[in-house]
Amino acid sequence: MEEELEQRRSRDVIKIVLFGPESTGKTTLAQMLAKHYNTQWVPEYMREYLQKKWDEQQETCEPHDLLPIARGQIAIENLKEAKASKYLFCDTNLLELVVYSRAYYNEFVDQVLLKHALKAQYDLYFLTYIDVPWVEDDLRDRPEDRDEMFARFKKALDDNHLPYRILEGDLQQRLEMAVKIIDQLKK
């Protein structure tokens, strides 16, 4: 089953992750960037999985949900990577699951999840700052902890020496900043 957590890098596609706390515009920005560059974006499987769980059982995420979520996330990413042209924009990745696991489950992280999160490779992370309004929904639950969550996401990038840039401002400012950074990337 661990092979289901393997990221494929079979093509010369630049992979960029939108990374950060909930309600910071990652999904919208991933969609806008994919449209701008006429390529694919990878939706957040965790949202689909947990919304279904909430709708059907009125239950929230538990530690045993993380590996099925990780498998779903990688499956979508691998599928979209095969269809992408030059860039692939990922609205989250396995490292985000690690951050949430630590925050919600007393620093617990499944070692299989951690192994594959650290093994996966991306060319750049866009860390989305918390300077946009909080939007409530069925799954979001920590509007008062945004500073702490942002610090956790930043620490994960710093601790693992991953390449990132912080995106701040409104959605249009973030898009313009991201495009400028991406246009400077070479592969």
From TrEMBL:
Keywords: ATP-binding, Nucleotide-binding. One of its GO terms (molecular function) is ATP binding. It holds the Pfam family AAA_28. Signal peptide: none annotated. InterPro entries: NAD_biosynth-regulator, NadR/Ttd14_AAA_dom, P-loop_NTPase. Residues 15-174 form the NadR/Ttd14 AAA domain. It comes from the Bacteria. The keyword ATP-binding applies. PANTHER family: NADR_TTD14 AAA DOMAIN-CONTAINING PROTEIN, TRIFUNCTIONAL NAD BIOSYNTHESIS/REGULATOR PROTEIN NADR. This is ATP-binding protein. The lineage of its organism: Bacteria, Pseudomonadati, Bacteroidota, Flavobacteriia, Flavobacteriales.
